[in-house]
Protein: Shikimate kinase
Amino acid sequence: MTQVFEKHISLVGLPGSGKTTIGRYLARRWSMGYVDVDVAIEEQIGCAIRDFFATEGEERFREVEAEVLARLLARPEKTVVATGGGAVLKPANRERLRAHSTVVYLSASPHEIARRLQRDTQRPLLQVGNPLQRLLDLHVQRDPLYREVADFVVAGNGLSATQVAQRVAMQVELTPP
Ligand SMILES: Nc1ncnc2c1ncn2[C@@H]1O[C@H](COP(=O)(O)OP(=O)(O)OP(=O)(O)O)[C@@H](O)[C@H]1O
Ligand SMILES: O=C(O)C1=C[C@@H](O)[C@@H](O)[C@H](O)C1
Ligand SMILES: [Mg+2]
Structure:
């Protein structure tokens, strides 16, 4: 179903909450473009985010992330935007997300996400001895920020990625913002 939206559709949530997976589904469903901010950042920096974190540090990464997000949200053609898990940390990013997109928070419990990402080696923030504890800490810090920026909150615990994607689609289609 081709949909005409006045704003981009942005997905926010913890690492592993399904932003990339569900973003791709929605873009296909609505015949819209899709962009993964992490991929756009890697194109700009010319290396893996994991390596950039290691060499340049998180603060520099957040600056690049803010630049890339601003550029993508300024594009006129409406796209589905899968943000990085930490995009909501900067107030300027939250303002831009709200101004230029309908924001969906994919909420999922740290326990569920830890199960999904058991064998992950790509997410720098989770390459620690106790990834579950890290996810619990990130959840405490970020859940209020994801909620602050969100037009819709969709809970994914116990649902498949397809089920979550269908719920997001129904919400956005039934309640056009
Ligand atoms: N609702 C779901 N149920 C089960 N598995 C899921 C669900 N959503 C995503 N997954 C799986 O969890 C993993 C992480 O999902 P994904 O890469 O889409 O998360 P992300 O939010 O984009 O993470 P990041 O912020 O690190 O980019 C993938 O293997 C994906 O298939
Ligand atoms: O949660 C985070 O802070 C991050 C999530 C990823 O999407 C990447 O943007 C990066 O690894 C940082
Ligand atoms: Mg992703």
Observations:
- The helical segments are 19-29, 37-45, 49-56, 58-73, 91-100, 110-116, 131-149, 161-174.
- The first strand starts at residue 8 and ends at 12.
- The CA atoms of residues 12 and 49 lie 18 Å apart.
